Amino acid sequence: MGARNKDAIYRRILELREQINYHNYLYYVLDSPEISDEAYDALFRELKELEEKHPEFVTPDSPTQRVGFKPLDKFESVSHAVPMLSLENAMRETDLIEFKNRITKLLGVDDVEYVAEPKIDGLAVELVYENGAFVRGSTRGDGYTGEDVTLNLKTIKSIPLVLFGPPEAPPVPSRLDVRGEVYMDVDDFENLNKEREKNGEPPFANPRNAAAGSLRQLDPNITATRPLKIFCYGVGLVEGHTFKTQWEVLQTLKKWGLRVNPHVKKCSGIEEVVRFCRDFQEIRHTLPYGTDGVVVKVNDLAQQSILGEKTRAPRWAIAYKFPAEEAVTRLIDIEVQVGRTGALTPVAILEPVNVGGVTVRRATLHNQDEIERKDIRIGDTVIVKRAGDVIPEVVRVVKEKRKGTEKPFKMVEKCPVCGSKVFKLPDESIFRCLNVRCPAQIKGSIVHFASKGAMDIDGLGEKIVSLFVDKGFLKDISDIYRLKDRAEELEKLEGFGKKSVSNLLNAVEASKKPTLARFLYALGIRHVGEHMAHILAEEFGSLKRIMSASLDELMAINGIGEKVAHSIYHYFRNPENLKLIEDLFQLGIEVIEEKPVEQETPLEGKTFVFTGALSSMTRGEASQKVKELGGRVSNSVSKKTDFVVVGENPGSKYEKAKKLGVTVLSEEEFLRLLEQGRE
Ligand code: IVH
Q1: Which one, 90, 265, 289, 524, has least CB within 10 Å?
Q2: pTM for this model (two decimals)
Q3: Does ligand 1 lie within 6 Å of residue 17's CB atom?
Q4: Going by C-beta distance under 8 Å and a sequence separation of 6 or more, which residues neighbour residue 166?
Q5: How far apart are the first and last CA of the chain?
Q6: Over the stretch 337-385, which tens digit does the pLDDT of each residue have?
Q7: Domain 326-424 and domain 607-678 have a common topology
Q8: Does domain 439-510 fall into CATH 1.10.150.20?
Q9: Is the C-beta atom of 317 inside 6 A of ligand 1?
Q10: Which residues, 6+ apart, have CB-to-CB distance to 586 below 8 Å?
């Protein structure tokens, strides 16, 4: 073939890709196609044929490269260059006013501009674009680290594989981390469930679970069949472009070809935000997708950076949640569930009822006191409530509907799982099964240990753990790592075969090198959730140090109160727990300790608080520098604070520092201190 001809083919390929990308954008992002499906298919077919004949021209960003990948064994983890924070909730309109009061006080202004955006009910993801090409995508995970779901995200047609550049849009940045919500339309969700029920598969509980389940598929070919969509709402790390406002972020993302929700609104003050929330609440059920509120963000990014963030959520944004939705149904029975800590929770079994688009079959009744207080009886007609992502709840009984045949509930005297006597501890309102060998507790703690945020052992979910405990394969957590010695027996279990057992054992093997934070979380120490585990890992750096920490050392840490400190302290002094950890190490678990600053730590043990805006760097950067030198950053001033760094327009922390006699540093003095630290 002549060079000319080949050249012409290459040019045709580029032209086809450009056309397809453009029509893709019109269809999936703007929802206003210009050509017929047949014409689009013809372009696609032509490209596919040319690429098949000339595989040397295929690039990963070609529109043909969205599907056709092999299933993965597991997802790799990806750390987010900038953590993906969550949001604080506003449950009432007055909470929005308080939000405004807080930020205007910190900024020293009357009010600010906001951007109000529908809060889409799906799961958060990050898309990484390098020089305009989609290179990697991940789930939010715990906010710091997520799962690499690149191949699955590629199957979502509203995610562009290549961004648009000039003349329509500003030049694409060299690096752009986009944040957005992957979701499923309610109709698509219902169709998918119908299909699943036909095939004997369990239905998804709601569109959000369906979206999450579809995106976390190891086989991208399955994800490709699921009707997922995305709305983009923000950015993380950006290199090669500077934004001034959130509004500009949204408008620019749209120009680059990313899908942005059309109902976003710039508001000139909090009253306009409140009005938007009211109006949007009215129309939200007319939309094809589920929304559970409105996210309100300060528009000006410079103001955002002054406001900074608390541990998990920014001060510059808030999620206004719509009031919960209610429905009437009949309470058929009350079941008692035993949790991983032995807590006995009564659960209402309901006649299935649709609450705000989702079928509810069970609802929590919290505890015996609650049932008595609400006078809930078996057979009652009740009102159930569901708010966003929380577990449905029985609000009250419709007493007028009583027939007299309803039966009051009596708490069981024996654990429904192991039969041992249940107790109510003096200052608790719940009953507990105190038998640490109770299968319910064993099952619960193993499921937790293997769960996604913990050791992340794919395939070791509730059903399988329950079966393995019942059959005697698992007697405690450490038995997970002894399963490999019983592979042959496992293969004989109903529903298992060589392949599924080997997949499971591979996943078990792959979990042997957890980070310190994951391992701590996996142990299931009471009050140590994912976030707390991160704090502990960061502060202590090694498991040994955490295990030997005194109560005082634990309590000295920002974010750890008395209750939590006691729980951690006693956990590591219980011989059974120590034996478990020892066994795990014997079985080959190796905790990866994110080494704490081994380097110079001139600010070791020093606590800093920032107030007001710094001119030479953002709050985040300043905090980072302090941490690099071994110091700690806190949000509130106390006697334990060593330095308060005062920028422009300082807040009340400055006054408090003076009152408590804490050393106050100007920005210049702070910079000098950092310099000295580095020498
Ligand atoms: S902003 C710091 N904007 O809500 C900013 N989040 O509760 C945090 N979400 O994890 C996110 N729509 O999954 C933002 N327009 C929107 C959103 C949105 C839905 C979800 C997202 C996030 C969660 C925070």
Answers
A1: 265
A2: 0.62
A3: no
A4: none
A5: 65
A6: 998 889 999 999 999 998 876 778 999 898 888 999 999 999 999 999 9
A7: no
A8: yes
A9: yes
A10: none
